[in-house]
Specification:
The complex is a heterodimer of chains A (113) and B (110). Chain A is mostly beta strands. Chain A contains no helices and 11 strands. In chain A, the strands form 2 sheets. In chain A, strands 2, 4, 5, 6, 9, 10 and 11 form a 7-stranded mixed β-sheet that branches. In chain A, strands 1-3-8-7 form a 4-stranded antiparallel β-sheet, with no helix packed on it. Chain A is globular, with a radius of gyration of 14 Å. The chains are: A mainly beta (113), B mainly beta (110).
Chain lengths: 113, 110
């Protein structure tokens, strides 16, 4: 069966510090991968998606970046965090079949102080 | 204006009662519509997914309906349980991308 991991689960970082959040998927190959941010009381905002190794599409301009160094690994990064980067970050993978659906990871709660 | 509007924003019901959550969308063209349940501090979990040709789909006590003509969907929860307390998110897919509603926060009280 497929599983998706995210770490860390929670993170407190000072403004201006770098960021690296990791997401890995098991039990599937060549998945579409997604990074979302969910601000408190708000809906999910798509940040990046990837259809393959090294292929990254960005939905919104920001100081975040994403990379996909391996088929089942998706990394969200920042060189300098802003206060507004605080939020709940979710990674998801998409299965293709009769019913396309996204499977979400457990999320990382980031607090920038 | 968000292309996927959910109502109400929040809802409080007593355990055992039924409730209905609404999702109106303007996304076009339409590929499918999904309802997710998201427990606090956790990732969303898929409840149902419906394509254009489907107008109702059930998953246990959850029943989703879809009217593609009026671009409306509803999620009906029967005999609510305390564990149904969560945010319910409507997501509409138009083949190119997915549009997320802001969610309805449901609280079930004993």
């Amino acid at each position: 069966s497929q599983t998706i991991h995210q770490w860390p689960a929670t993170l407190v970082q000072p403004v201006g510090s770098p960021l690296s959040l990791e997401c890995t998927v098991e039990g599937t190959s060549n998945p579409n991968l997604y990074w979302y941010r969910q601000a408190a009381g708000r809906g999910l905002q798509l940040l990046f998606y990837s259809v393959g190794i090294g292929q990254i599409s960005s939905e919104v301009p920001q100081n975040l970046s994403a990379s996909r160094p391996q088929d089942r690994q998706f990394i969200l990064s920042s060189k300098k965090l802003l206060l507004s980067d605080s939020g709940f970050y979710l990674c998801a993978w998409e299965g293709m079949g009769e019913e396309e659906t996204q499977y979400f990871g457990p999320g990382t709660r980031l607090l920038v102080l | 204006k968000n292309q996927v509007e959910q109502s109400p924003q929040s809802l409080i019901i007593l355990e055992g009662k039924n409730c209905t959550l609404q999702c109106n969308y303007t996304v076009s063209p339409f590929s499918n519509l999904r309802w997710y349940k998201q427990d606090t501090g956790r990732g969303p979990v898929s409840l149902t997914i419906m394509t254009f040709s489907e107008n109702t789909k059930s998953n246990g006590r959850y029943t989703a309906t879809l009217d593609a003509d009026t671009k409306q969907s509803s999620l009906h929860i029967t005999a609510s349980q305390l564990s149904d307390s969560a945010s319910y998110i409507c997501v509409v897919n138009n083949n190119n991308d997915m549009r997320f509603g802001a969610g309805t926060r449901l609280t079930v009280k004993p």
